[in-house]
Design goal:
By secondary structure, this protein is mainly beta. It has a single domain, classed as Hotdog Thioesterase (Thiol Ester Dehydrase, Chain A). 12% of the residues lie in helices and 36% in strands. It contains one helix and seven strands. It has a seven-stranded antiparallel sheet, with helices on one face. A hairpin with a 2-residue loop joins β5 and β6. The longest helix has 17 residues. The chain is globular and about 40 Å long. The mean pLDDT is 89.
């Protein structure tokens, strides 16, 4: 499902990351793995299991929103910025089958101080857009765990 001649660089996550979307330390999470493209967009190729269905055979709308939110967030993080979602809008275009190959793409569209706007798309293996979103992310300081 990669695009021909696409040059991707894997984005690493810390081993103790418990993020529901991308954390390798979250056994119940999605464990998404993103790569950086040459134009500083992000891409994730994944298959989300039937465990995350809403209607039988299709992903739950909240999971679809999570996939898009992760892609937008990672596109901001790829620029060295820690940010959290302030606002996002999702457009559900077609049902998303569970257990099928998916491609998630995210990119930053604008920056202004601590504000970062991003957009994302969720595509099937044929390249059809199933859902899309745009959102505003606000830069936050890195929080260190207290021991």
């Amino acid at each position: 499902m990669s695009k021909p001649h696409e040059n991707l660089t894997h984005m690493k996550h810390s081993a103790h990351n418990r993020c529901f979307g991308c954390g390798p330390a979250n056994a119940g999470g999605l464990r998404l793995e993103f790569s950086l493209t040459e134009d500083h967009s992000v891409v994730c190729q994944t298959e989300v299991t039937h465990d995350f269905e809403g209607h039988p055979g299709y992903l739950h709308g909240g999971i679809i929103a999570t996939l898009l939110d992760e892609a937008m967030s990672k596109s901001v993080r790829a620029r060295g910025v820690n940010a959290m979602t302030r606002h996002m809008e999702v457009e559900y275009l077609r049902p998303v089958p569970s257990g099928s190959a998916l491609r998630i793409e995210g990119r930053v569209t604008r920056n202004e101080g601590r504000k970062h706007w991003s957009e994302a798309r969720l595509l099937n293996s044929h390249g059809a857009v199933l859902a899309q979103s745009h959102g505003l992310f606000i830069e936050v300081p890195v929080r260190r765990e207290e021991h």
